[in-house]
Amino acid sequence: MNDRFSLLSLLALVCGIAIHGLGHMLAARAVGVRMVGLRQTQTGLRLIANTTFPSYDAELYCALGGPVANVAAALLCRLILLPLGIATEFLISFIPLSLFLGLLNLLPLQGFDGARILFCLLCTRHRYLASLDPFTAQRVIRVISCSLLVFLWLLSVYVLLRRGSALSLYVFCLQLFRSVAFDSS
Q1: What is the mean pLDDT of each run of 10 residues along the chain (185 residues)?
Q2: Which of 56, 103, 150, 162 is the most buried (most CB within 10 A)?
Q3: End-to-end CA distance of the chain, in Å?
């Protein structure tokens, strides 16, 4: 039973990742950009476009596509399938995993969709705020990423020492910090 639940959880996670990528692809297609491949990075998979984005707004919509698709899939399953009595073990695993994947990607950490969203917002001219040049915006995002990761790491150390758990959060934060701090791009 436990092996079956683990396998269903893994399948639910793979489906959540596929929905996330599909959301990015559909958003890119809606703004006229075609995705031509995948590249593995330290923080996950990155879609490769055939051209640069025509505007920061187009890039923003594409970056929002994955998290929105995850949250929408989780909400649709929760609001439509579960009330109909289709509460399978797969759905019980899929709903929180998909929701978590979508919300986690909204964190403004380098390599996550939240950093791309923040980058586009910082580089776009607003009514009352001047836009930043891309180099300055990238530096701001790096500072925010490192600060947030240090906070998460300290929180994980506190929980680890206080309760004797959260080792996975600790290792996750260290891996993300390594990818942000030593990223040359």
Answers
A1: 71 89 90 81 74 84 93 89 72 88 90 91 77 88 88 81 72 72 56
A2: 56
A3: 45
